[in-house]
Design brief:
Length: 328
Amino acid sequence: MEEGRTEKYISCKWLESGVCFDNGVYGSNIKLCCYLSAPGGGNTMIFENYHGEKIDWNRFFEIKRKYREIQKSGGTVEGCRGCIFLEESDWDGEDYIDSVIFDHFTRCNCNCSYCYTDENKKMYNKLKTYDIYPIIKDMFKRNILRAGGAIGFGGGEPTILPGFDKLLSLFIKKGFTNIRVPSSGIKYSRIIEKGISTGQVTVVISIDSSSKDTYKKIKRVDAYNTVIKNMIKYAKAQRPGFYNVTSKYIIIPGINDTKEELENWLDFCKKNYIELLVLDIENSWLTKYREDKPDERILDLIRYVEEKAKEMNFYKFELCDRAKYLFN
Ligand code: SF4
Ligand code: SF4
């Protein structure tokens, strides 16, 4: 397509100008995105078996163009089938990247029962990662990587990833403004704090509870007080009137699904200027729900919390994509 011209068709920003460096259940790969909860399953490959080697960018964009052509022709890339991120829009069709997910590490200082690493925590904590910094530097040098999209981390725990501070500093320095860092919250990070204070970084902490006991049942580490303390510290770094700390709550039916636990979570957030809230549902329960609709009560609970958050006037309350699928 000619530079500066756009074309209307159904696609998504990740398919068009995103990339995910992944290492985990499906091996170490470069993919279009990190979403696996679409009915099509996501997981669309650009390069398989990738371990930090130099990238042939011509080949990279050639592969991305093939996926784009499927969308342009009115079809849907198989992995993207039914994905809620597909939208009709005017796409510029240019070869560049403005959105990156760093998901190439799996080591974590937490031990959530719902985490994909639970199937073999020892192995995931030892799994080798690679230094992504030279790749990102190369992308900037070639003007392949441009500000304007979203930078995110998967993992693994980013704050214990070797080179994390240097990587995050680079994005902050390059003027990226939409950087999301999910963290267990167990290790406090000065560079995240800096990004919060400039409004460029949002830290996302899935506390999933409002008590020490529930936290321990889910996370299987005794760190509730540390995480609460760090969340408050991050919230204090926010500029007045701006919000860059997200508190997430993943409902795990039977464990943390009482109104009381959720109400206390809302109260804690309100009291500590944590105004960005995300409510989610545990993945294996969602899969079961899709098959045989086991517990409609959870849908009522989600509606209740949504209503309550509205009454409390939070700056932003969102359902995560998995929770949204319950109502679709
Ligand atoms: S699975 Fe969804 S988010 Fe990922 S590239 Fe496809 S449409 Fe986009
Ligand atoms: S904090 Fe994230 S990466 Fe770590 S165990 Fe929990 S879900 Fe997994």
